[in-house]
Design goal:
Elements lengths: L5 H31 L3 H22 L5 H25 L6 E5 L22 E2 L3 E8 L3 E7 L2 H16 L24
Antiparallel strand pairs: 1-4, 2-3, 3-4
Length: 189
């Protein structure tokens, strides 16, 4: 066994503590840098996800939750963060839809009749309630959906009922671009 003097132990402990503090500070700084890239709505949602991660971290440190529960929820938070950043960068809008991140075994939590993975396509509306945004791999695969707002749901149901009344091949004068989801208003940053 090696014999370390008291002052050497103190320096080693102090160095370890400073390393941990610097690592946490760098992580927090990196997250704030990403958040400052966006407007107040997206930044607030990313801040909310940071707070949720802190809650999960605190609960696992107090042994209130299992390691499996901790990993799944940390991975889910990470998937939500990735999708939020992607959507904000792609659209340029300061808007976050109501997001759901679920694994295959959790599909029944949001769908009465879960869709088959083989038929899910990015941008597809599922069950007149959700738009499939894509899959994110963060330790496990999460499938991300945006809940349609009430106006989108009403519009979709109205178009569906009109389509049922329309003869095959007719498009009621709508172009292909008019049948998509209504555009969101861009908010200047």
């Amino acid at each position: 066994m090696c014999n370390i003097s008291g002052s050497a132990r103190f320096v080693l402990l102090l160095t370890s503590l400073l390393t941990i503090i610097l690592a946490l500070t760098a992580t927090a700084y990196g997250q704030r840098q990403t958040e400052s890239e966006f407007g107040p709505v997206v930044s607030a949602y990313l801040g909310y996800l940071n707070n949720e991660q802190e809650v999960v971290d605190d609960r696992v440190s107090r042994r209130e939750i299992t390691g499996v529960y901790y990993r799944r929820n940390s991975n889910r938070i990470h998937a939500l963060r990735q999708m939020t950043v992607r959507l904000a960068r792609e659209s340029g809008n300061d808007y976050v839809p109501e997001l759901e991140a679920v694994t295959v075994d959790e599909f029944r939590t949001i769908f009465e009749r879960p869709p088959h993975l083989s038929v899910l396509h990015q941008g597809e509306v599922v069950g007149n309630k959700f738009r499939f945004l894509g899959a994110v791999h963060t330790g496990e695969t999460f499938y991300l959906f945006a809940r349609l707002d009430p106006y989108e749901q009403a519009d979709l149901m109205q178009r569906t009922s009109k389509a049922a009344d329309t003869p095959v091949g007719a498009n009621n004068g709508q172009s292909a671009s008019e049948t998509g989801t209504r555009a969101r208003r861009a908010v200047p940053r």
